[in-house]
Specification:
about 200 residues; alpha+beta; Pnp Oxidase, Chain A; eight-stranded antiparallel beta sheet; 5 helices
């Protein structure tokens, strides 16, 4: 991922963004070209392994064991219009752009066609995303025979992480007056716009 130093996230911030986003596109090469699947992301404490699962009916996992993978994570994204640049009154040479927060994770796929492994992954994943709920839902809340059928319909996937790169392009390259006006304008826009404005308030 091409990243100017001013837009680059630290490794810690990149992982924090991935955890907040919660899911991404897992892209891998196959004999018939690139294939992707959008799936949740569960990061272990060491940050060296990601786990998820995919539908058994989805061929993405077949012959994937040992393959290179690129996990693409997008946390926020919005169009930025030059009309939000007050500085254009003195310097009219401006163009539209896009603000976004994203990460690329590279690694190697491990396939786990094993009900015990996959159930444990599902339980960890559920606990991860239910953690903030007042009354979290647990896998054990559902009938055991139902869960068994669901587990048989999915395949576990792990990613041995080799690298992560994070990027937050949030008008840092514009004069402060432009940055602040872009943030203000996006904060009054769509849900996607408002999410970018929220990230702009982090820097």
């Amino acid at each position: 991922m091409y990243t100017l130093p001013s837009f680059q996230l630290s490794e810690d911030d990149a992982w924090s963004m991935v955890l907040e986003a919660g899911a991404g596109f897992y892209v891998r090469p196959t004999s018939s070209g690139l294939r992707s699947v959008f799936a949740p992301i569960v990061v272990d404490e060491s940050r060296r392994t990601i786990t998820t699962h995919v539908a058994r009916a989805n061929d993405w996992w077949r012959e994937a064991d040992g393959a290179d993978v690129l996990v693409l994570v997008l946390a926020a994204s919005a169009y930025v219009s030059p009309r939000h640049y007050p500085s254009k009154a003195e310097s009219p040479g401006v163009v539209p752009t896009w603000n976004y927060v994203a990460a690329e994770i590279r690694g190697t796929v491990g396939v786990h066609d094993d009900a015990t492994w996959t159930r444990a992954q599902v339980e960890r994943q559920t606990d991860r995303f239910e953690a903030t709920a007042a009354t979290p839902w647990r896998v054990t809340d559902a009938p055991s025979d139902f869960i068994d059928r669901q587990i048989r319909a999915i395949v576990g996937v792990s990613i041995a992480v080799s690298s992560i790169e994070g990027k937050a392009k949030l008008s840092q390259n514009r004069p402060e007056i432009d940055h602040d006006e872009v943030q203000r304008a996006l904060s009054e826009g769509t849900l996607a716009d408002r999410e970018v404005a929220r990230w702009m308030g982090h820097d």
